């Protein structure tokens, strides 16, 4: 495994400890401490997802245009750390929304440049494994963050400020590790086709005596970004990801449904994130390797089938057993989609636009999730939690029927990678 993949995984581990500490207490902080309704929290969760859309596109575009993915990713990590300090004086929905927007902007800015560093660190036929290792380390941080938050609130019940301060310290540690241990990497230029090289001996001799100046690729333009959607396989992947993500329920909202149904209690609420991350950690590498072997499209669509199982379990199986089974399906869904999606997109893209293309498809997912969060909050406010879950289960079933034929018509990614 390339060293940079492991280092980036450790950076994500530390950063996710910081982020998930906040994420684990945010639903309770928003609904209990600030008094937000399900619709209000749905809007906040929509902001949580949607704030990354433009920043994902900007981060990927600038990483390709400037050839400085480390610079863009580092700026994103720094924004995430600053957002933790913004949470300290929060006393209302407006200030909370601003802090969430800054945190998610940092997330969006760093994601595509970081994934570019991973995608170019090793051979393309092992992309699923590389992303799986990174996501496994990332999931370890997502597992530890809620545990730390749970411990802090057990020591000082209701002291959310202490959680935010410790979260900020962890975020700063992640920034320092990234700055000092991740090397700057410039994406390699695509070599000229071999058949264009003159074969005459005299020309070869002359070329050796007078080597041509180093080729410099022209800067990436917005026209190049728009041209990505004319790549047939990538366009199908983009559309399928957008359709499927619009029918997803945010983790916090799904956990609130479990809380309202008394499948879990307030005391154990932060540990729901731990269980999901534990399953994600256990399955990220095996499912990443399976995507390399059996096809990334197949694993990706199977992941959304697992998400549908999570929805049905949340409303059909009562008690602790139902909650645990729901979390198993949810963690398996993330393991089958989070790292597999950029691994599926990368081989379809030109080398000089890899970060941009990854950011485009991830922005589609973030935008779909933002719409889904707002819609779920609205349905829950108009009806009830179980009715809202049934509605989204039907929507996800319809999305799968649309997306599966679309995505399976793309070329097999194993062949593309080889």
From TrEMBL:
The chain crosses the membrane at residues 136-156, 162-180, 237-256, 268-287, 299-316, 322-348, 360-381, 387-408. Residues 4-411 form the Major facilitator superfamily (MFS) profile domain. GO terms for molecular function: transmembrane transporter activity. Keywords: Membrane, Transmembrane, Transmembrane helix. InterPro entries: MFS, MFS_dom, MFS_trans_sf. It is a multi-pass membrane protein. One of its GO terms (cellular component) is plasma membrane. It is found in: Cell membrane. This is MFS transporter. It comes from Streptosporangium carneum. The lineage of its organism: Bacteria, Bacillati, Actinomycetota, Actinomycetes, Streptosporangiales.
